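User: quick one, sequence for these tokens?
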């Protein structure tokens, strides 16, 4: 990228302009999605500012703690959840919200109701907050088909029914990655403008990567295909070079790197957690949607991740996602295991 030229760019593609351009392809569209997205973007900007200030403002304490002024502090993830719930409800475009922070789904009151269902993790990777490691917001969007009274079944849908998905990473810069089902685009927040600017158009994941990303501390409890795959990454028998291991332990950051550099991110099942750790609706689905839209794959160990039909809103699933060829290898190992039985 030519940074000098970039500093003088006068034709900036903001995320709103980008989505309005997309919307103009559909003359019947009433702009509801653009309005919904602008409320998500507002939530991301708020959380970004709060994350940046967290160390200074001591926002990182436990919920219920008091600060030096004696005011009650809200934990950053609790605060982020409140911001997103309020922004989404006030958009007037949502009917059901499922948040990682809330045990029950929120059904929006009739007067403020729209047709979109938003599933989200307002601040994923929260165990990393206190040490300043990148964290993020993940979201997926469904739409109810007709004017029926919304029920949980409207969100207990396979990921392939999502209309859009994305994440915002709060790292050295604040980056929002979005797919509305026609490829993947990345936008970086320009703090001086307060706008997300298109910086990563049409992201395509490399077909094969050189990095694997997994919590190897769980290795003793892995099943055979996962163990074999990781062994192959470290000791390839086909003459190729071993892969590098990178694991941040913050899904948004690990997936973002995987999307840009290629490779594979895995959070497999193990003996202690037969369904893995990551949540289907607001972690596995949105990230799988983005991976497929960028030309990669996402697999649960049994099936294409986006085909999964969740039965509960906080359900978990094992996940293997990333470069097409790398995920293909793990699929082959699981297929061989089933055949061998
Ligand atoms: P965290 O526990 O910090 O909230 O789902 C949550 C998550 O982070 C993901 O962001 C991350 O990929 C994963 O858990 C890390 O889990 P391990 O610590 O078990 O590796």
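Assistant:
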């Amino acid at each position: 990228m030519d940074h000098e030229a970039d500093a003088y760019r006068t034709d900036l593609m903001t995320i709103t302009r980008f989505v309005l351009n997309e919307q103009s392809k559909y003359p019947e569209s009433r702009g509801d999605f653009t309005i919904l997205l602008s409320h998500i973007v507002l939530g991301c900007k708020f959380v970004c500012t709060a994350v940046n200030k967290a160390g200074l403002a001591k926002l990182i304490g436990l919920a219920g703690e008091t600060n030096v002024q004696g005011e009650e502090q809200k934990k950053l993830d609790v605060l982020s959840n409140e911001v997103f719930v309020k922004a989404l409800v006030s958009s007037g475009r949502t009917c059901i919200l499922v948040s990682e922070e809330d045990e029950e789904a929120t059904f929006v009151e009739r007067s403020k109701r729209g047709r979109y269902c938003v599933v989200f993790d307002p601040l994923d990777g929260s165990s990393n907050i206190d040490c300043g490691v990148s964290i993020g917001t993940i979201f997926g969007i469904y739409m109810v088909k007709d004017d029926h009274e919304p029920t949980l079944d409207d969100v207990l849908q396979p990921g392939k029914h999502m209309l859009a998905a994305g994440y915002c990473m709060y790292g050295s810069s604040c980056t929002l990655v979005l797919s509305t089902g026609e490829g993947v685009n990345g936008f970086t927040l320009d703090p001086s403008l307060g706008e997300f600017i298109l910086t990563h158009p049409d992201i395509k994941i490399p077909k094969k990567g050189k990095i694997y990303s997994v919590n190897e501390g769980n290795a003793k409890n892995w099943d055979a295909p996962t163990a074999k795959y990781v062994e192959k990454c470290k000791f390839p028998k086909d003459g190729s070079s071993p892969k590098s291991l990178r694991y941040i332990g913050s899904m948004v950051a690990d997936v973002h790197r995987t999307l840009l550099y290629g490779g594979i991110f895995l959070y497999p099942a193990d003996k202690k957690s037969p369904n893995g750790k990551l949540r289907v609706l607001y972690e596995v689905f949105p990230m799988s949607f983005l991976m497929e839209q960028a030309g990669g794959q996402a697999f649960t160990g049994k099936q294409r991740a986006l085909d999964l039909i969740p039965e509960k809103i906080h359900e978990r699933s094992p996940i293997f996602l990333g470069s097409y060829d790398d995920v293909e290898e793990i699929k082959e190992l699981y297929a061989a295991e089933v055949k061998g039985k």
